[in-house]
Amino acid sequence: MKQGIHPEYKEVTATCSCGNVIKTRSTLGKDINLDVCGKCHPFYTGKQRVVDTGGRVERFNSRFKIPSSK
User: What CATH number has the domain bearing residue 23?
Assistant: First the structure.
């Protein structure tokens, strides 16, 4: 590898809005503020909701005469 052309790989702290602190390494070189992390994201906490906006899938299927999978 050539010397002097690669960015410096430093330890940074990623702080989530929920208060979770993650230590990692990055070439960014400064601390990172996160909106969501694995501790507060709905997918990882099990609080995820699936929203079907007005039966759009059924409307599409009826429009193109696709049999329902139910």
Answer: 4.10.80.400
- Residue 6: phi and psi, rounded to 5, are -95, 140
Q: Tell me how far CA of residue 57 lies from CA of 6, 8, 49, 70, in angstroms.
A: 50, 50, 17, 12
What predicted TM-score, i.e. pTM, was given to this entire model?
0.56
Rounded CA separation 52/70 (Å): 15
- Sequence-distant (6+) residues with CB within 8 A of 39 are 16, 18, 20, 45
| Number of compact structural domains in the chain | 1
Residue 70 lies in a domain: no
pLDDT digits (tens, 9 = 90+) for 44-64: 788 877 776 667 778 888 888
- Strand 21-26 vs strand 10-16: parallel, antiparallel, or unpaired? antiparallel
- Expressed as residue numbers, the domain containing 27 is 10-63
